[in-house]
Amino acid sequence: MTRMWITLDSPVAEVGGTITGRVEWEGAEKDPRAVEVALSYRCSGSGEADTGRPSTSRAAADRSGSYPFELAVPDDGPITFEGRLISVAWKVSAKLDLALADDPGVAEDVVVFPRGGRTLWVRRTAPPPAPDGS
Amino acid sequence: MAESDPERAAAAHGVPLEGPSLTDTGDRRAGVWLAVVVVGGVVVAVALFVALGAVAGLIALAVTAIVAAVAYRRARVWAHWENPQLFFPSSSSLRLGEEAIVRFRRQARRSGGAEGSSLTARLQCIETVRYRSGTDIHTATETVWDALLPVRPHHTGDLLDCDLHVTVPVFDAPPTMVLPHNRVSWRIVVHIESPAAPDDDSTFAVVVGPEVAL
Could you report the per-residue pLDDT of B101-151, keeping only the tens digit for each? Predict the structure, then answer.
């Protein structure tokens, strides 16, 4: 049974920035041809879904191993958001490419902010500070 | 100082008139299409009259008359006003959280044509989705941001010339996004009321980039 996991340096990024991290795996049933990591978005909601996979990375792989990756976020987004008719979600996914077998894979959600907006968004979602003396 | 010269008035308020600009040419396009429909409608009405009788011809004539009334209204607007323009101080694309002063200008075709005119302006963000139901493709829209813009008029006479104070929200609406089935668009809509012409809306599509101005 293949175990596979992704460790992100940060689950948030800004448009025009990068998502970095490492994918690790062990116990692959066959020799993989490669490991492939992709950054993708899915825009869904009331309409038909639009998807995009603007950044991928691929490398040779053994039955166990790790692969550090750096994936570019496009300059023009889209950013992560949840509107009334439309929502956009981003994820990093990784899979082992096995010959004549199902490819084991794993995915982690990431959040893409507008350029210069990461600090504002993090501050907005942070819990309010505790009152003095408590 | 009387601000009779729009160039001088613009300079006094720090708004360059030579920046990037957007022009709404909707009146001319609508006029051409409505004229085509009216002419075609009369031809169809006459043909139906001859081929099928009075009832079908009268229905076609009634439809043509309604389109003609709309065309006449558009023609009056077009005869009274030049195409409206929106001037931006630096770039015609805006950012989240940005405050900008943009200048709206619309020239009347005759002297004094802008006298007594007033306008209101709105900044709107609209989500548009396309979806399939059976073999039909439908479109749904939702206005997710709609704000009245403060307006400062500079000059009237034969020229309607106003500053629009645009403030793009930071958190409450997403930036412009264009995908095959999902779209987020921003626009500035200027509504003009004039004693000498029908009320008219000018629509300018603006781009809000995925960048925070703060």
Answer: 899 988 888 888 778 888 899 999 999 999 988 889 999 999 999 999 998
| B211 in A contact zone (CB under 8 Å) | yes
pLDDT of B14 strictly over 50:
no
Whether A34 and A97 have beta carbons less than 8 Å apart is answered as yes
More confident residue, B146 or B195: B146
CB atoms within 10 A of CB B104: 23
Are A115 and B181 within 8 A, CB to CB? no
Give B210 to chain A, closest Cα distance, Å. 5
| Helix, strand, or coil (residue B107) | strand
Helix (H, G, I), strand (E, B) or coil at B48: helix
User: Smallest Cβ distance to B127: which of A78, A79, A84?
Assistant: A84
Q: How many CB atoms lie within 10 A of CB A4?
A: 17
For residue B132, which residues of chain A lie inside 8 Å, CB to CB?
48
What the block records as the tokens of A7 is 């460790």
Alpha helices in B53-118, H assignment, sequence order? 54-80
Helix residue spans in chain A (DSSP H): 118-125
Q: For residue B4, is pLDDT > 80? A: no
Q: How far is CA B48 from the centre of its chain?
A: 36
Task: Give percent helix, percent strand, percent coil of chain B, each to the nearest 5.
Answer: 30, 45, 25
Cβ neighbours of A40 in B, within 8 Å: none
Contact status, residue B151 vs residue B119, Cβ threshold 8 Å: yes
Nearest to B182 among A15, A77, A86 (CB): A86
User: Alpha-carbon distance B158 to B114, whole Å?
Assistant: 5
What is the 8-class DSSP label of residue A73? P
How much is the ipTM here? 0.81
Residue B134 zone, left/alpha/beta (φ > 0; ψ -120 to 50; rest): left
Residue A74's closest chain B neighbor by CA? B210
